[in-house]
Task: inverse folding
C-alpha cells in the first residue's frame, strides 16, 4: 500500500485532525480505514498455513507491515485525542451481510487453493483492499479520487 512519504497522513492537510475537522462523516471513514488496516496488518499470518514463493511472501509481509505501521499512526492519534472513536460502529445490515459473504467466499477460495493459484488469488485480494484503503484515505482527507 502506498501511503505516501513516511506515513499515512503526511502533511497537515492529510492529518486525522484535518479529517475530523470535516465532520462526523469523516470520522466514520477513519473507522472504516482503521478496521481495514487492522485486518490487513494480519495478512502475513496466512503464511503460517499456506506456502508462497519468497517474492510473493515478501510482498505479503510488506503489505502487512505497512498496514501495521499505518494502524499504529491512528492508534497514536487516538491516544492524543480520546474523542476519536476508532471502533467500528454498525453498518447497515445489507452492508454487513455483503461483507460477510465476500469474506467467507474469499477465505474458502484461499484456503482451498495452492501454488500459483493461491498466490494470484491472494495478491488480487490485496490489490482490491489497497485500492479501497487508498480511496478511503483520500476521502478522509478530502482529496479528490480519480
Result:
Amino acid at each position: 500500500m502506498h501511503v505516501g512519504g513516511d506515513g499515512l497522513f503526511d502533511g497537515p492537510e492529510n492529518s486525522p485532525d484535518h479529517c475530523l475537522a470535516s465532520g462526523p462523516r469523516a470520522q466514520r471513514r477513519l473507522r472504516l480505514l482503521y478496521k481495514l488496516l487492522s485486518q490487513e496488518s494480519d495478512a502475513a499470518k496466512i503464511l503460517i498455513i499456506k506456502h508462497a514463493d519468497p517474492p510473493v511472501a515478501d510482498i505479503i509481509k510488506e503489505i502487512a507491515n505497512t498496514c501495521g505501521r499505518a494502524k499504529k499512526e491512528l492508534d497514536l492519534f487516538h491516544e492524543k485525542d480520546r474523542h476519536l472513536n476508532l471502533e467500528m460502529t454498525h453498518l447497515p445490515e445489507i452492508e454487513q451481510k455483503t461483507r460477510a459473504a465476500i469474506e467467507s467466499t474469499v477465505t474458502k477460495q484461499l484456503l482451498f487453493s495452492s501454488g500459483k493459484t493461491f498466490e494470484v488469488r491472494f495478491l488480487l485480494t490485496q490489490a482490491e483492499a489497497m485500492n479501497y484503503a487508498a480511496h478511503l484515505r483520500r476521502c478522509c482527507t478530502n482529496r479528490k479520487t480519480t
